[in-house]
Fold this protein.
Amino acid sequence: MEPILWEWINALARWLHVITAIAWIGSSFYFIHLDASLRRRAGAPAGTAGDAWQIHGGGFYHMTKYMVAPPQLPEDLTWFKWESYATWLSGFFLMCVLYYRGADLFLIDQDVLALAPWQAVAISAGALVAGWVAYDLMCKSPLGRNDGALALAGFAMLVATAWAMTRLFSGRGAMLQVGALMATMMACNVFMIIIPNQRRTVAAMLRGEAPDPALGKTAKQRSLHNNYLTLPVVFLMLSNHYPLVSSTRYNWVMVALVLVAGTAIRHFFNSRHAGKPTPWWSWGIAAAAMLGCVWLSTMGPAQGDAAATVPTKVGFNQVEEIVATRCSMCHAAQPVWDGIATPPRGVVLEGDGIRRHAQQIRLQAGFSSAMPPANVTGITPGERALLAAWPGDTK
Ligand code: HEC
């Protein structure tokens, strides 16, 4: 009964997380677009920064932006915050269910560092807090006055974090951790900076004072960061389904390349929506970065000896033996591994099942070190090389 319950908790939490994330990213993309498409028109009311006309769902909308605020506070004002909070809360809950509850399989890798589950969880949660504090201090330091320098420092911090996490956790654990840090930075930007600044603006107006324009400026800077982080975060959240991304040797360099690609793509849309010359070259940068990722993913498993001798001819019986000793305890019709009730993802690696899953076996355990999770069964680099060299169709 218990595995069924956890499976449903996992499924429902993921459903919620994806929905809230769509709502958050959707509204955030919408406002970035709206902001970029505002145009100043002759005869516009004083105190406005521009307006935009839109058509959607059978009606016309006329949006006007007030800088810093309208002369009178409107009676009903829509705030956008729960999209963000709910995404972070559901995401952290899902992380607890999958990566903290299953730390021994998904977060820890004995080949990387022999951590106890509580240690891994403490490091992971601590790194989220520390990462946010470091980023926030960076934004508030003199560096924060120079957008370009701040972006470079933030980039360096994230790549360094990615490298460090791959020295502490399994590949998929490390990639998820970096994604979770970026998502935490984004949600905290909303919770700790953007919304409080908006509250102060409103409070000043209620007191009949002019709000401080600096409040809006700071919020705008954080909002810009969120915009550029969106695409890389989504990539990292999906990375654990792709062993070539999460569990190959240069996974942490891929984080850097994905940050570059994501930024380039956002730059394309931001410029286009602002009516500036369309930077088509952005796609060239994004494509080059992603090709770099493809190339890096061929560099072999994250753990183990890169120079493991590659056999030239691999027979099916050799593969069958490796699978029997390293995989079958979980991927059998009746798994014997404690806590695994049914063959994971329906993958049964017995007899003909091995041949049918040949390409997946090579991806998960040959080209990458995604399987066995945490290398619980101690597969060797030589065995991985053998699986990678297996064409999959030998007798
Ligand atoms: C300790 C148990 C365990 C062992 C040992 C193990 N696996 Fe897995 N395997 C899992 C779990 C759990 C999942 C599901 C992972 C997830 O939910 O992301 C999985 C998923 C998979 C998948 C499907 C991946 C997908 O995303 O569809 C393949 C293929 C796979 N394993 C191959 C292997 C191979 C090959 C070996 C041996 C080299 C192996 N596994 C050893 C537990 C195990």
About this structure: The pocket of heme C is lined by residues 105, 241, 326-327, 329-331, 337, 340, 344-345, 347, 357, 360-361, 364-365, 371-373, 376-377, 379 (CB under 6 Å).
